[in-house]
Amino acid sequence: MANSVELANPNLADMSSDFLYHLAINVPNTKDTSELQKQFGDVRVICVGGTASRMRELAIYLGKTLNIPNSAEPVDLCKQGNRYAVFKVGPVLCASHGVGSSTFSVVLHELLKLVKYAKCQDPIFIRIGTCGGVGVPPGTVVVTKDAYNGLLNNEHEIFILGERVVRPAHFHKDVMLAIVACGQQSDGFDTINANTMSTDCFYEGQGRIDGAVCHYNNEQKMQFLQRAHAKGIRNIEMEATMMASLTLQAKVKAADICVTIVNRLNGDQVCGDSEGKVPLSLEQKKNFEHRPFLIVGRYLQKLLSN
Ligand code: URA
Fold this sequence. Notes:
The protein is globular and about 60 Å long. It is built from 8 helices and 12 strands. The protein is an alpha/beta fold. Uracil is lined by residues 130-132, 202, 206, 236-238, 261-262, 270.
């Protein structure tokens, strides 16, 4: 039986109205959300990713793949908020979240409240992103099992009311396995499940030596990456621990699927013009970014046909 979202915040029951500020969505009466239910009540999947343009592309791609009428030119429903973009194609929302957990957590709280107010049934949150690989070739698609923080611990750390709070950080096993199963040998790239390291800093936090500041050497960096590899970590990004933890707290299913755009055991620079020094051209990167679209498209075809 399908279930509505119950959030772990008793204060919400005492609020007569709510304003999802960054989404610019008004909930004038929390006891009668029929207008929101009309607009969003059919949503079953919320795809999230870094940029508005990539999420728009995803919305167009999913519109075609899922045969959703009038989906060729999706409009940003949250343009007024001037922060995040949200597109709707049939039962799928595609929302941007910016770079890193801090910007993502803001929109994730509000999207969770949106699906609660709209009375969506068993919504699934899926992050689609890019990442650095650890010992896998660029272009590999990684679906996260356990999310590790920058201390290489499988947990999410957050400071609340002046205290350090540590929460579990793993993704929904069945959803993860179902998404991995959508990879096919004929794709020409691997889709794997593995652990993910998630950091608050792209440079020092991920052991890069090409940031503005660096007080360690290449050997120390490689030792760190090898320690990560030994924990089953095959990719590094900046959102997984927060996403896993917050969706677990909210008791909604979630998954994180990212394509690697560099193998960090071979270098730090992602892509650019190159002269052969950087492994990936901008065009290849764009091409790689579509790989998770393909996998998620197949997953949604199956999910939504049930
Ligand atoms: N995103 C990251 O966080 N790290 C990378 O190396 C590439 C993309």
